Structure formats: structure tokens, C-alpha cells
Amino acid sequence: MILKTACTLIDNHGVGDGFLNVLVANIAAEYAVVVRHVLAKFAQGLVAPAHLLGLVASVCVCVLASVWLTASTEELPISYYSRSEDQDDLDESYGGREPYLPFRINPTGMQPIIIASYLLHLPSQLASAVGGPWLALGAALGTPLVYYPLYFALLYASAFLDINETSREVSLYLGKIGAIVPGVRPGKATELHVEAFRRRTIRKGAGLLAALGTFSIATEVFFRRRIGASLSLTSMLLLTSAVMQVRRQVKSYRQAPRLERAIRNHEARTSVGARD
Fold first, then answer.
1. pLDDT one-digit tens code per residue, 135-158
2. What are residue 104's DSSP bridge partners?
3. Rounded CA Rg of the chain
4. Which of 65, 77, 216, 228 can bridge 233 by disulfide, Cβ–Cβ 3.0-4.6 Å?
5. φ and ψ of 150, to 5 deg
6. How far is CA 114 from CA 22, 69, 87, in A?
7. Residue spans of beta strands (DSSP E) within 100-202
8. Are strands 100-104 and 179-180 parallel, antiparallel or unpaired?
9. Considering only 9-23, 51-65, 96-110, 206-220, which range has the smallest mean pLDDT?
10. Which of 208, 226, 202 lies closest to 42, judged by CA?
11. pLDDT of 164-191, one tens digit each?
């Protein structure tokens, strides 16, 4: 009940995903214990320096790749029917760049890792509870030749579960702000173009996410056998994603005053034009 309340409060205040943040807090606490255990074994000479350096390098690769994958976007150029002072104010507030719509290459974040892991562990859980033919299925899924390709495929498929926005909504939004995609007719043609661009962008992110997730779990298994401690690199991906999500929320809050100034300027010009 307490955890549910904490998740709800985090969601209501818009500081990332409540469930993911609580999960990440638990992961961070477990990491502290594992790191102390690994360092203690290294001090006793039970862990080879090459293995420890390889583990640190793998963690750095996973963190950097997760940050890049979470933050990267593909830009869809747009143009306005006619320029206005309000649009110039908005452009200046964002550095004066040419207008575009950003589409994240990985809009689902690292949540496909949770989905894929759950689906792959479900048969083994059923096998331990029911027995019978499930035991053979659980054993088969646990072999590397089956587990890793299936894990890659589930990660790739789960990355397309983006329900935050639709191409139709984007097309309607462009009409409301008086913008078009250059070379594409407004309406259904724009909707189809946006959908094709969006799916092409997600395919790129899905492939990279599947590769990163499979690398992290394979590396995790390798070092668990060499070091004798489980430093979950897949959990590290979730941790990094949660931090990036909170950072994005904070950044959006910091952008709010700039938008408010642009709105005030628009209202001031509107009132002056009405008096004239």
C-alpha cells in the first residue's frame, strides 16, 4: 500500500514513472551491496584485475549507450504557412533553429526489458509450479541458443508498443499551429507520411535496444560465472532510463517560463491590435 501510494504521488507530480522510479530505488540499494562484495573479493585476490576492468568497462558501455538511446531523436522538418512574431519568439526561445518535430527513436524507454524478461521467465515459473511438460519447455528456453535470440526478438517487438501519440494526432497538431511537412499535402497524406517516418524511426531504436539488451544480459551472465557475483547490467539500463526520464521532466519545467513569456508577448500584441 505504501509503495502504491509512493508510485501515485510520483506520477501525479510528473517526476518520471512512479513504478519505474520505485523499482530503480530498490535496484540502486542492491547495487551498493553487490559492489561492496565484488571489491571485497578483489581485495582478497579472488577476482582477477582483468575481469574487474572488463566489468567496469561493460557498465560504462551500457550506461553511455542507454543515455544515448533514451535521448536520441529523429527530426521531421516542418514549415509554417506564414511566419509571425509569435513563431519567431518561440524559435528564439529554443535557440533559433529551423522548425521540426522531434520523434524519439526509443519512445518506450527501457520498459521492453521488463516485458521481455517477464515473458521469458514465465514458462520456468509455470514449470516449477505445475511440472509436467512445462519442465522441458523451461529447460529449452534456458539454453543460450534459444534464450538470446528469443530475448532479442521480444525486445524488438516490445519497442513498438508506443501509445503516447498517433500519426493522426500529429497531423491535427500541425494543422492547429499552421504548419505543414514540406512536399506533403495536408490531411491524410501528412498522416501517412508521419506514420511512415515514425515507424522508420522506431525500427532504428528497436534494433539498437534489442542489441543493447542482449549484450547486457550476455555480459551479465559471463561475469557472474567469472566473478561469482551478479551485477545486473539490465537493471543498470533501467536505472539510467529512470534518471534520464526525471532529467527530461525537470528540463521541461525549466522551459515553461520561456513559453510563458512568448504567450504574454502574444497576448500583449493581441490587446494592442484590438485597441487599434
1. 777 777 778 888 899 999 999 998
2. 73
3. 24
4. 216
5. -70, -40
6. 14, 17, 41
7. 100-104, 179-180
8. unpaired
9. 9-23
10. 226
11. 557 888 888 888 878 888 888 888 888 8
Residues 6+ away with beta carbon under 8 Å from 41: 47, 227, 228, 229
Which stretch of DSSP H or E encloses residue 76?
strand 73-77
The CA distances from residue 26 to 12, 21, 30, 239, 266, in Å, are: 21, 9, 6, 10, 47
- The torsion angles phi and psi of 74, rounded to 5 degrees, stand at -110, 135
Question: Cβ(246)–Cβ(16) under 8 Å?
Answer: yes
Maximum CA pair distance of the chain? 84
- 101: β partners: 76
pLDDT tens digits for range 191-239:
899 889 988 999 999 999 999 999 999 998 888 888 877 777 887 787 7
The amino acid at residue 187 is: G
Q: What is the pLDDT of residue 93?
A: 47
Task: Measure the CA–CA gap between 145 and 138, rounded to whole angstroms.
Answer: 14
Which of 98, 95, 55 lies closest to 223 in space, CA to CA? 55
Nearest to 245 by CA among 126, 93, 70, 114: 70
What is the number of residues in the chain? 276
Q: How far apart are CA 262 and CA 216, in angstroms?
A: 45
Q: Are 230 and 220 in contact (CB under 8 A)?
A: yes
- C-alpha distances out from residue 89 to 82, 181, 260, Å: 14, 21, 11
Cα–Cα distance for residue pair 78/35, rounded to 1 Å: 48
| Helices 133-141 and 111-130, packing angle to 10 deg | 150
Q: Which residue has the cell 513569456?
A: 261
